[in-house]
Structure formats: structure tokens, C-alpha cells
Specification:
By secondary structure, the protein is mostly helical. The chain contains 43 helices and no strands.
């Protein structure tokens, strides 16, 4: 026997399943075609379904050998063999077995007598009662024991043997007031009191006393205590009507008369719903009350409504109209809490009374701020309950009893009531066991009936509510020794997943990749605009860009239900009508972030006040995004979002604080050193704000004619006053300022400052930073263009090019056009140099000397003029020093070019020495000199012109 479900045996909705089980229990002969359905329901987590199924299964056992064998194997697998007495031990499997064994004990099937000897004596089928039995401490066990006694009383021979035990247990229950507020215990306790009273073994006094006690509790205490009392009275009334029909005054005493008008109304409703008749008053009149008397019976005298609000006729639908009358109180926390506690408890009771029923909603949900797509009444009612639970600081599960919870048809709605561990005070959570039952039951039903159901996604969605780990411990116990199959018959590791979820709940930041749907967050970037845009892309929040598969928006679309309000960690206030409404809000925030991010840096550089305000607005907008996403994502992914966006919020806070400090510095209100220490005392500095802060130092360091080197000197000195955690950021910021100083110096053609910023030893920590390498390469080329060969060599070395051969190579490559020009000039001399060749042949020493000097002088003059246009004199100094520096640089470069030219011309002379193209003999040197002078000037001129172009 398996629990697999064929199409014709799958459980439908809850009410249909309960009616089907009740009909099966009345069948004269069991139907073997329905055993799979019966076994499925027997193992359900819905208490009412498994209790009905256990009764039916026990009733069928003696007549069905296959079912008997399965049940015997089930009992042995739980270490409760049929040959031993059964004792309740807090486990649900034991409760199931007890009900089934009691039902089998009273079964009247005369079939299959060969099975009868396999059953032990009657005493071994039921709990072993001592002379004075003790009621179990567990409410659930106590309820099951009372239910088992009700089943055993169906057998007339057992009634006399059990009535004394029952009376003893009922007295114990009365001595435990908290036990008789449990709906299941109270239901079975009421039935036993009624049974004993009707059989003449006792009176209705315990029942009347319990009603009096609960009615007194309903008039005092907190809203939660009043609500439990009202629910307790209603359970008693429902049980009375379902057991004995419309009661007489002897059952409830004076509460049938004018002393309990609220009880009259509830009796009226239950009689109408269950029997179609009316309860009778002591004078023989049918019970009928007005809404006015309803309020007077349930609220304090000073809050009673005046006048007959709906008229004297209590026709059907009164409860809906009463809730519609109270609906304005549900629109806001202050209005709700301004009502008396009794009135609030009554309204809560009425909302709960609508759960699981087909009655239309009495109000338009949109007027309450919980408007949802479609007409999902249960979702609306749950949103209202969640809202009130947050206002009253009650766990939402305490507002809905298990019968109503299991009546929810949408699996996601059960998750909506899961309490967050933080808001529920950790592990002590009221109703958590009932909620675990709902989750497991919905999981099993969905797997059996919905081919597209994603069990893993459903469990992942439960992490949105951040429930306490005790929920998953309870779920693990429920799923243990159960097999979950998909539609293809493959086993789904539900229990293993739940154990993993328990660990995830304890440490969401350490959750493995299996329980993370988001891609890793992007690393923070220096530029705030680039950084924030990267974060928006990771979130999938940009309305103009389709979200990537592993973005936060894609996860929301994958997990969150599209047909009602999105599940959230704090779902009390329904802010979004649907997933589409949530996306619209997120897109609006993202557009604001994009606009602000694009303005931040330009504003910060031109208007400190504007930049500071933009940073604050960005901080608030990122906080809104953080709230929206973190509230609707599973715990591990929500943790990633909170960390990533928290980093950006911190960065924006530092931007705002630093810009504020810059503004105070510029106003001269504080000394730079004091503000700097203040800024770094409680947090880090954004790297890209350090240059701005340095620019805003007090007037003794900053001014229109300030020396950037002096500012850097001051900033480097301040480094040792900073906490160690920000010294690296300070250095990175100084690198940025040093780069800016170099760039400005190069723009101003200040070669002297460039040389100092590159060559001074105190700037070495800045030059060795990775962010400086690109700038140093630019400086190297700039220095080459100005013949600052020593500075260029240092820039190359500091930029990572420490190999001397590579430095020489970069120099040769930079001036490659000059070397080619010199080569071309030497070759052109062969075509146009006949006069100079003749001068050498004739031994004209003066002409040769003049030609060489003209080549050298002309080249030097050209280099001086060309370089003078590229550099500016040092501020405060004359041009004399500048010219001397230009001359020394030009002579150095001229010497290199001359050596290169002499090498080329000497090489060409050797190459052509066997021809008449060159001068031989003593004047060969003269020929090389005039040749080199011509090639030097022409080659340098054309090479530099070509390079500059």
C-alpha cells in the first residue's frame, strides 16, 4: 500500500475532503479503491482531516486485511506495535494510531472473523488508565485523549467502564484554565460534558460554568485574551448545536435569556448554519436580537452604540454588515487603537469568522489599503489580520485557529502568517506548530494535485518571512519518514531541504549557493555614478533595462505570487496591491537614484551645499531600495542586498559628511587638522572624496597662488595622525590629488613642478601606488616631448618599467620619427651634397667647420625655440633659469642626436668607401663632418615636425 494519488483519489478542497471521509465512515462495507486516498488523509498534517481519516481507517481495519497489514507495519515502524499498550508521547503518529485503534475497537463489522484473534484484548487497544489517570500536559495530546474517549463511548459496553475516568479527566481540565482555551480541547471537553449529562451521569453545570468564566474573560484583559475568550465561547456554542441541535435553556442556563445576548446571536447563527432552526428562549419564543443588543452584550456600557443601526431583523449576513460598520477603524493604526479593547476584540472575531467561508466581503478592500487583484477574499482577510496583529503586537497565527488555517486554498497564504523570528521574540512563538502543519499539508496537497508546483521555490519563499528555526525543526519532524514524489514519481528530498533551511535561518549570511538565487553583488567602484548604476543593474531595478536572470527583480518575479500581495518579512501593512505594484514603486525609486547619481559629482565639485543634499537624497533612496528588496527576498538574498546597499548608503553618508566638512573648511570655521580627525574618528573616507577634502583645507594651505606641493606635503604629514584603518584610503586619495596636480602642472606647462612631483623622495609612496602608473606613463611621454630625459626616466621607473633596457627602448620608440628623419637626412646628402663633398675634397677647413657649426647651432636653436613654447617659467622666478634649463636639456638631446648622426654617416661612408661617392684620404673626416652637420639639422627638423603632426 502506498500513498500515491491517482486522478480519481486526489484530495480536493478541505470541505469536500471532510465530507468524503464522513461518508466513508458510514459505509457498510469498505471500498478498497479508496484506501490510497484514506492513507493520504491519515498522514495529513491538518488535524481535522487526519482525525477523521484515523477514525475511518480504524473502522475499516477489521474488514480489510491489506489495510490492516499496512497499519500494523506503520505502527511497528514507529515503535508502537499492536501487541503493546499505547501511551501518548507528544508525537502526531501516536495520536493517529490511538484514534485508529479506538475506532477499530468499537467497529461492528462482522466480516473476516479470522482477523479477530490478531487483535489483543480491548484493554490493550486503548490507553492503560490507572485508577486516577492524569491528563497529558500537551494540549494536543489532551485533545486527542478526550477525542479517543468519545470514540470509545460509541460502544455501549464501554460507557459504564469509562464514565468515571472521563469525569476524573474533565475535572482535571477544569483545574487548568489555560487548557480550556485551546479550541480542540474545549471542543472535545464540551462533547464529553454533553454526553455525560444526557446519559444522566452528570449535569450541564460544568459547561455553564465554563461559559460564565469565558464571558467574564471576554470583558476584561488585553485584546488577545478577550479574543481567546470569545473564540472559546463560540467553540462551545458550535459544539452544542452540532451535538444536540438547537439547545434548550437547561443546557446553557441563563445565557439563553437576557443575560447573554451575544451568546444568543451566535447560537442563532450556528443553528441557522447547521440545523436551519432557531434556539428557544425559556418563555418559548425563538431567539432573535438586534445589532444594538449585540453591542450592548459584548462591549463596555460606555462604548455601546446608540440606536438600532441595522434594524431589528437579524436576517442572514448580519456579521458582514457588522464588519462593514466597523471597517473605518481598520484604515489606520491610531483610529484602530482609539477604540475600546472589547470592540477591537469583537471586530477581530468577526474577521476571523469570515475566514474559510464563501460569504462575500462586506467592504471594498481598496478602501482599507489592502486592494488586491481579482477577488481573493482570503488574501484580503489575511492582510487585514496581519495589519491588526502588528498594531496589537500579537503573533498573526494567534488570530486564526487551525481549522481556518487549513481552509486556505492558496499555499502562499499559509506562508503569509509565518511570524518573523525577531518580531516574535525568537523561538517562543504562539501557533507555530499549527503553522508548520499548514505548510506541510499545503506542500503535500500541491505536490499531489498541481503538476507545475515548485516545492523548492515554495520553501524558498518561506524564507522571506524570516521565521524562527523552530518552525523548520517542526517541519523536519512532520516530514520525517515520509516520501514526497513529483508527478514523474521521482523522490523530492523535502526533509533534507528543511534541515538546510534550519541552518540558513540560523545564519543567512553563511547560506550556501544552493539557497541563493542572486548573483554576487558588484564590488564598490570609485566613481559614485558608475557604482550606483552597477548596483541598479545587479538589482534589475532600472526600468529601462530588462532585468538579468540572477538579478533581485528577476528573483522577485520568479518567487513572488503575481495574483495577490507580495509576501514580505513585515507583511502587516499592505503597501502594494500586487507584484506589479511593487515593481512600479521600485522602478520609481531607481529612476530617482539614476537622476541623483548623474548630478552628484558635478554638483560636489561646483556647489558643496548642493552636493551634500544630493548625497543625502541618494542615501535615502538607497535605503528605500534596500527596504523594498530586503523585505520581499528570501533571507540569504535579502542579506546580500542589505550588505551591498548598506555599503552604498555608508558611502553616501561619508560623501555628505565630507562635503559638509569641506564647506566648513572653506568658510574658515574649523582648522583643517581638527576636521580631518573628526571625519575619520567614526568611519572610513571615500577614496574619491579625499582630493576634494584636501582642496578644501584651511587658508594657510590653500589659495589662488598655493603650491600644490605644499598641500601634498601637508596632507602627507596628516597621514600619521589618522587611524590605521583609513590611512590606505588617505594614500589612495592623495594619489588622486597628486595625479590631478601633475595633470594641472602639465596643462600649465610647468615643467619644474612636474619634475619635482616625480623626483622628490617624499612622493615615492604615491608614485608606487597602482593607480599612479597610467599617469606616470603620461608624464613620461610629456617629459620626452620636452626633452626632460632624466624626469622621463624616473617616471618610467616609478610606473613599473624598472628594466634599463626597457627604459632605453621606450625613449627610442618615442623619438622614432627623429631617428628616421636623421637617417633620411643622411641619405639625402648623397643626392644634394655635391658642393659639400667638393669642399671636403679641396680641404676647405673653414667651410667644413662652418657647416658643422651651422648644423649644430641651427639644430640647437630649433630645439630651444620648440621647447620654449612647451614650458612656462617658474612662478616668482625670471626666465633666465628657464633658458638655462632649456639649453641643458637641448644640449643633452642634441648630443644624442649628433652621436646617432655621426654613427649613421660613418656607417654610410664605410658602406660607400669603395666608390667615388665619398671622399677618401685625409679629408674623409671632413666629409663626414659636413655630411653629419647637414643630416643633423635636416633630420632633426623633419623628424620633430613629423612627430608633432
Amino acid at each position: 500500500m502506498t500513498a500515491s494519488q491517482d486522478e480519481d483519489t486526489q484530495p480536493g478542497n478541505r470541505e469536500q475532503t471532510l465530507r468524503r471521509l464522513a461518508a466513508m465512515a458510514r459505509m457498510r462495507e469498505p471500498d478498497s479503491a479508496q484506501t490510497d486516498f484514506l492513507v493520504f488523509c491519515f498522514r495529513a498534517s491538518d488535524p481535522e482531516i487526519y482525525q477523521h481519516a484515523a477514525y475511518c481507517l480504524g473502522y475499516w481495519l477489521p474488514a480489510m486485511p491489506a489495510l490492516f497489514d499496512w497499519f500494523e507495519e506503520y505502527c511497528e515502524s514507529r515503535n508502537q506495535p499492536l501487541s503493546e499498550p499505547l501511551q501518548l508521547n507528544g508525537l502526531r503518529s501516536t495520536r493517529r494510531m490511538l484514534l485508529a485503534r479506538c475506532a477499530a475497537a468499537v467497529s461492528q463489522h462482522p466480516l473476516h472473523p479470522d482477523l479477530q484473534p490478531r487483535w489483543p484484548g480491548m484493554e490493550r487497544l486503548i490507553p492503560a488508565f490507572p485508577e486516577e489517570p492524569v491528563l497529558p500536559t500537551s494540549d494536543a495530546d489532551a485533545a486527542i485523549l478526550l477525542q479517543a474517549l468519545l470514540i470509545l463511548r460509541e460502544d455501549p459496553p464501554l460507557q459504564g467502564r469509562l464514565d468515571q475516568t472521563i469525569s476524573w479527566l474533565l475535572e482535571q481540565a477544569e483545574q487548568r484554565p489555560s487548557l480550556l482555551t485551546n479550541p480542540a480541547v474545549l471542543r472535545h471537553w464540551t462533547r464529553l460534558v454533553l454526553d455525560l449529562a444526557r446519559s444522566g451521569h452528570s449535569s450541564y453545570a460544568p459547561l455553564q460554568g465554563r461559559v460564565k468564566t469565558l464571558l467574564g474573560l471576554a470583558g476584561r484583559g488585553s485584546v488577545g485574551e478577550r479574543l481567546r475568550a470569545l473564540n472559546g465561547i463560540d467553540v462551545i456554542l458550535h459544539t452544542v448545536v452540532s451535538t444536540v441541535g438547537p439547545p434548550t435553556s437547561s443546557v446553557l442556563g441563563s445565557y439563553m435569556g437576557d443575560g447573554g445576548l451575544w451568546i444568543q446571536l451566535r447560537l442563532y447563527w450556528w443553528c441557522q448554519r447547521l440545523t436551519g432552526s432557531l434556539p428557544m428562549l425559556p418563555d418559548g419564543r425563538p431567539a432573535s436580537v438586534t445589532l444594538q443588543t449585540y453591542y450592548q452584550a459584548t462591549l463596555a456600557a460606555d462604548t455601546a452604540r446608540q440606536g438600532n443601526i441595522l434594524g431589528s431583523d437579524m436576517a442572514g449576513g448580519t456579521e458582514q454588515r457588522l464588519l462593514a460598520y466597523a471597517a473605518p477603524n481598520l484604515t489606520g493604526r491610531q483610529r484602530w487603537l482609539s477604540s475600546p479593547a472589547g470592540e477591537r476584540a469583537l471586530q477581530l472575531f468577526l474577521i476571523m469568522d469570515l475566514m474559510g467561508r464563501d460569504a462575500p466581503l462586506p467592504v471594498d478592500p481598496s478602501t482599507l489599503g489592502v486592494g488586491l487583484p481579482g477577488d481573493d477574499r482570503d488574501a484580503v482577510l489575511l492582510a487585514m489580520l496581519n495589519r491588526i496583529a502588528s498594531w496589537e503586537q500579537l503573533p498573526a497565527a494567534a488570530l486564526v485557529d487551525p481549522r481556518r488555517l487549513h481552509a486556505l486554498r492558496d499555499p502562499v497564504l499559509g506562508l503569509a502568517l509565518l511570524p518573523a523570528a525577531e518580531s516574535s521574540g525568537g523561538e517562543q512563538t504562539e501557533g507555530l506548530e499549527a503553522l508548520a502543519d499548514v505548510v506541510e499539508q499545503q506542500l503535500r496537497l500541491a505536490l499531489a494535485t498541481d503538476p507545475d508546483f515548485d516545492a523548492r521555490g515554495y520553501l524558498m519563499l518561506s524564507l522571506v518571512r524570516r521565521p524562527p528555526s523552530r518552525l523548520y525543526r517542526q517541519l523536519a519532524e512532520l516530514t520525517r519518514q515520509r516520501q514526497y514524489l513529483d508527478r514523474q514519481g521521482h523522490e523530492i528530498p523535502i526533509t533534507r531541504w528543511i534541515h538546510e533551511l534550519q541552518q540558513v535561518t540560523a545564519s543567512p549570511d553563511q547560506a550556501g549557493a544552493d539557497w541563493r538565487l542572486l548573483a554576487p553583488p558588484p564590488q564598490p567602484q570609485q566613481d559614485p555614478q558608475d557604482d550606483l548604476l552597477a548596483v541598479l543593474e545587479w538589482l534589475g531595478a532600472d526600468p529601462h533595462v530588462r532585468p538579468r536572470p540572477q538579478s533581485a527583480m528577476a528573483v522577485l518575479q520568479q518567487l513572488q505570487p503575481a495574483d495577490h500581495s507580495p509576501l514580505a518579512v513585515d507583511g502587516h501593512e499592505a503597501q502594494h496591491a500586487s507584484l506589479a505594484g511593487l515593481q512600479t514603486r521600485i522602478h520609481g525609486i531607481a529612476r530617482r537614484v539614476i537622476d541623483l547619481a548623474q548630478q552628484l559629482r558635478p554638483a560636489a565639485e561646483t556647489d558643496l551645499e548642493s552636493g551634500r543634499e544630493l548625497a543625502r537624497q541618494l542615501n535615502a533612496a538607497m535605503g528605500d531600495l534596500r527596504t523594498e528588496f530586503a523585505a520581499h527576498l528570501p533571507a540569504p538574498d535579502a542579506h546580500s542586498v542589505e550588505q551591498a546597499l548598506g555599503q552604498r548608503q555608508t558611502a553616501m553618508q561619508r560623501w555628505a559628511a565630507t562635503l559638509d566638512a569641506c564647506q566648513r573648511l572653506q568658510a574658515g570655521h574649523r582648522a583643517a587638522e581638527d576636521v580631518l580627525v573628526e571625519l575619520t574618528r567614526h568611519g572610513d573616507l571615500p577614496d574619491n572624496l579625499v582630493p576634494m577634502l584636501i582642496q578644501a583645507v584651511s587658508p594657510e594651505h590653500q589659495g589662488p597662488d598655493s603650491d600644490p606641493q605644499a598641500i601634498l606635503d601637508w596632507a602627507l604629514d596628516q597621514r600619521h595622525r589618522l587611524p590605521e584603518r583609513v590611512q590606505q584610503a588617505w594614500i589612495r586619495g592623495l594619489v588622486s590629488h597628486w595625479r590631478q596636480a601633475l595633470e594641472r602642472a602639465m596643462e600649465r606647462q610647468d615643467a619644474h613642478l612636474v619634475a619635482k612631483l616625480v623626483s622628490e623622495m617624499r612622493f615615492r609612496p604615491l608614485q608606487q601606488h597602482a593607480d599612479a602608473r597610467e599617469t606616470l606613463r603620461t608624464v613620461r611621454d610629456w617629459c620626452y616631448a620636452r626633452l626632460m630625459l632624466g624626469t622621463a626616466r624616473l617616471a618610467a621607473r616609478h610606473g613599473g618599467n624598472r628594466n634599463p633596457l626597457r627604459c632605453i627602448g621606450s625613449f627610442l620608440l618615442h623619438y622614432s620619427a627623429v631617428w628616421i628623419g636623421l637617417l633620411v637626412g643622411a641619405i639625402l646628402m648623397l643626392d644634394f651634397g655635391d658642393p659639400w663633398k667638393a669642399m671636403a675634397e679641396q680641404g676647405d677647413i673653414g667651410g667644413i667647420a662652418m657647416t658643422g657649426l651651422l648644423g649644430l647651432g641651427g639644430t640647437l636653436l630649433y630645439l630651444l625655440v620648440a621647447q620654449r613654447r612647451r614650458v612656462s617659467p617658474v612662478q616668482g622666478q625670471g626666465t633666465t633659469g628657464l633658458w638655462w634649463r632649456l639649453i641643458s636639456r637641448s644640449v643633452a638631446f642634441l648630443s644624442i642626436c649628433l652621436a646617432f648622426t655621426l654613427t649613421i654617416t660613418s656607417g654610410l661612408w664605410l658602406l660607400l668607401s669603395g666608390t667615388d661617392e665619398v671622399v677618401h684620404g685625409p679629408m674623409a673626416i671632413g666629409h663626414i663632418v659636413v655630411w653629419a652637420g647637414f643630416a643633423l639639422f635636416a633630420g632633426t627638423f623633419f623628424g620633430l615636425v613629423a612627430k608633432d603632426s
